[in-house]
Amino acid sequence: MFFSLHSLIWEHEVCSLLKYGELIPRLETALGKFSNRDSAEVIQPVRTTVPLQKHSGFLGVMPCYMENEGILCTKLVCFYKRPTGSTLPSTQATVMLLDPEYGNVKAIMDGDVITGMRTAAVSAISAKLLMCPDAEILTILGTGKQALSHYNVFTEVFSFKEVRVWSRSKDKAEAFAQSLGHHVTACESVEEAVRGADVIVTVTRSTVPVLSGQWVKPGAHVAAVGACRPDWRELDDTLMKQAVVYVDSREAAVTESGDIILSGAEVFAEMGEVINGTKPAHREKTTVFKSLGLGVEDAASAQLVFDKWKSKAM
Ligand SMILES: NC(=O)C1=CN([C@@H]2O[C@H](COP(=O)(O)OP(=O)(O)OC[C@H]3O[C@@H](n4cnc5c(N)ncnc54)[C@H](O)[C@@H]3O)[C@@H](O)[C@H]2O)C=CC1
Ligand SMILES: O=C(O)C1=NCCCC1
């Protein structure tokens, strides 16, 4: 087996190598290629999930092959329904890059930073394409890892006048808001947090709806990141039915998303179709981007990390 220990790329290294300014364009290209459904561009099946019943979790296996770019990659990610108060992480991920010609492992790298950053970057791409041009108020529901990466990229890429956060515990919301800076408001209820917001990010571990369409301002954009199982929800039927629904993958949406399957909402387009110009971006309407997370996003991110890591090592 051709493999050397030098090809282990640790979390702190991924963290110092990955920058949103470089990651976002790579992800836009990858999503566009994915939506072309050209097997020489991207082969990426819906992830396989193995239930870890004893531990209330799943192992997700997320392979992707990009023939034209010579990228062969898989992510292994475990995700768990943690009990309230648990300090354990919801997800733990490892990414493996292989040589497509020989099948040897080129690099094994931390997948937690990649998962945090690529998910947030894809939500930022959805907002760039779908939020109203004069968006002023950003709300984040949830205060965990994804909440932080979403705050980081949304404030790096856009200039919101107001940022609000909500968590089931007011103390947690306040602590999170304070850790981000004095300009962030901790809200008591979801309704208070989202009324009048132009962009709403849902990054909770909830399995039942937390966000109701009756509180969402017409024309707002919702990036819905949690609820990645067919019987889990973050958004209610009212919102799903009143919004134009965009997804990362149509196949994944009808297999994995409780918000789509249980509401019966119609998928209007993939984000890659909007990037490719084959479907319109309805900025003027209420929009939901249902994110589930794709192997192609991990592959593009991991290749970027590897290229930068190699050029530093030389
Ligand atoms: N779409 C994608 O590509 C990805 C989605 N995810 C999903 O994003 C969500 C957030 O992930 P992380 O930030 O890593 O998790 P985390 O555990 O760090 O944070 C979860 C947040 O949800 C809150 N929460 C837990 N149960 C809740 C409930 N019943 N109602 C409201 N809030 C609740 C927690 O207090 C915490 O603020 C998870 O559902 C995860 O599965 C994670 C990675 C990628
Ligand atoms: O895409 C991912 O990575 C994940 N998506 C859903 C939840 C676990 C991780």
TrEMBL record:
EC class of the enzyme, as a word: oxidoreductase
GO-annotated biological processes: thyroid hormone metabolic process
Segments traversing the membrane: none
EC number: 1.5.1.1, 1.5.1.25
GO molecular function: pyrroline-2-carboxylate reductase activity; thiomorpholine-carboxylate dehydrogenase activity; thyroid hormone binding
GO cellular component: cytoplasm
Secretion signal span: none
Annotated protein name in UniProt: Ketimine reductase mu-crystallin
